[in-house]
Amino acid sequence: MPRFFLSSGAPENGTFIITGDDAKHISFSLRMRRGEHLVVCDGEGTDYDCEITDMDGQQVVLTILRAQPTVTESPVKIRLYQSVPKGDKFEYIVQKAVELGVSEIVPVYSSRCIVKPDAKSEEKRIARLGRIAEEAAKQCGRGIIPRVLPHMRYADAVKACGDVPSFICYEDERSYSLKTYLHELAQKEKTALQFFVGPEGGYAPEEIALAAEYSIPSTKLGPRILRSETASGFVLASVAYEFEL
């Protein structure tokens, strides 16, 4: 069933009104008609099964049939600190991370990033990534639209982790595995998690040392070295296996 996120209207009135691009998509791309059903999500964990009662191409009026809690969200709130890769890889990372359950994504500039911060293009980049996150959330039935936050320098990101359980993916880690970390986290019944994925060239030793100073352990992701655009998906799938399946 088609899924959209709330843009206007009040559930207590028994109706929603969808406008803008979503209204055009419903009317002209999906070619939906009066009497057909779709789902509206409030972005806070509630889904509304709705019936189209009126439409004119510019807006779609929906009558709420029933409300129910979203069942597609991870029990763990997950923030990904992703070092910025070159090209359009970040778009792929955002799309797949949203599908796999991430809650927030922070672009990070670490020392080996090929791409450097550009204040002029940063706002447009974040806006585009936000749109990609929204489309992915609709496609996979998420109950929220994961946020793509403003970029951070690596050192600032490490310092921002606070008391939230966090780890850093590191190909040179030999003993402490992701499997062990997640199992220990599940035993503690934690409901939030943060992790770092490096750029194409990986992390510099001094960056791993800085993370250790803030009690952020490094973990290995298995015997193979994963690409930057693969590692986050591997971690998120592992989190889903540990906490959801």
Describe the structure.
It is a single chain. The chain is of the alpha/beta class and 245 residues long. It is 35% helix and 27% strand. It is built from seven helices and 13 strands. It has helices spanning 20-29, 89-99, 119-140, 154-160, 178-187, 205-213, 228-243; strands at 3-5, 9-10, 15-19, 37-41, 46-55, 59-69, 77-83, 104-109, 147-148, 152-153, 166-169, 192-197, 218-219. Strands 7, 8, 9, 10, 11, 12 and 13 form a seven-stranded parallel sheet that branches. β2 and β3 form a beta hairpin. It is elongated, with a radius of gyration of 20 Å. The model has no long low-confidence stretch (mean pLDDT 94).
Short descriptors:
single chain; elongated; alpha/beta; 6-stranded mixed sheet; 245 residues; 7-stranded parallel sheet
